[in-house]
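Example 3.2
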Amino acid sequence: MNKQFKTYKVQIKVLSSVVTPFHADTIFGTICWGIALLEGQDKIGEFLNLYKYKETIPLVISDGLFDGYLPCPIFEPLSLKKSEDLINNVIGGDNPSEKIKRIQKLKQFKNIKYLPIEYFNKNKELFSQDKLSEDYLRGQIKESQLTKDDYILKTSIDRYSGKAMEGRLFHTKEIFYDSKINIYVKLREGSHFDGNWLKKIFSYIEVSGYGADKSVGRGQIKVETIEEKGDLPHCDKPNAFISLSSFVPDRDDPSDGCYIPLLKYGKLGEYYANSSIDKIISGTDERIGNNPFKRPLLMFRAGSTFRLKNDEGIRPYYGRIVENIHWDSEIVHYGLAFPLGIRLEGK
């Protein structure tokens, strides 16, 4: 089934601070706006209709990933007994002070969000929490500072006078990237969605900007390369997958796994981002306005790891498109998983 898709790697350089993280659902929404504004409103309707049937899904996309890194697999935390045995095995003797240091270090493993691709290539045939933890204690896995967060102080503006409001200060978090970002995109073969189409869409994103506050200079990017490339680690006999994107599971997806929830408060973009009261429900004359906010949605973070069902090969995607996320029934939310096959210990 994977042969039905070609995988492209989009590498971008972030030129400014970014307010909105490079999550797959937000990138997908930006792509949809590119289709609507470049190809017409009817084309975006046709594009989204393709997601109603699994055999016609045209595009699957990953989160924006740091160049040279992939999300660290999420596993069940080690038990106290396993932690003690692991620490004793690493220090190789009765050294109380060293043991305390290792215990403190092991607690910091939760800060590891990304692993180098080289580590995946070496371990893709046998992953486990035990091995990850041991490699971390031995210094083979290290924390990487790939972004810097800054908090910008702002003041609220009076909508009527256009002046700053006294005593209404607030701050926003902005992210500065020290690494290039890779976005992996699967495009269905045999359609007009190809490399040239992808370049056109990302050229729009390059010009328009990405995410919140792009109108004031945030989210400025430069597309470095877009090429068909299969440089992701490949496991010959996977029995599990790691999601390279945040996603919403479908009812027939594997359920034996570990994940970290991600609560999303989605907001519409472009001219849909403005609030106004000019929508009237026919039959009731209820004035509901243009609400730019989607309903809250619980997703799984990138790195969530699930075992495949018995005798099932890895699919090109998991998850689903979420409907009824907004009062406007035509608006949907992207929730597909971009899977990377690995082999886990046991079973």
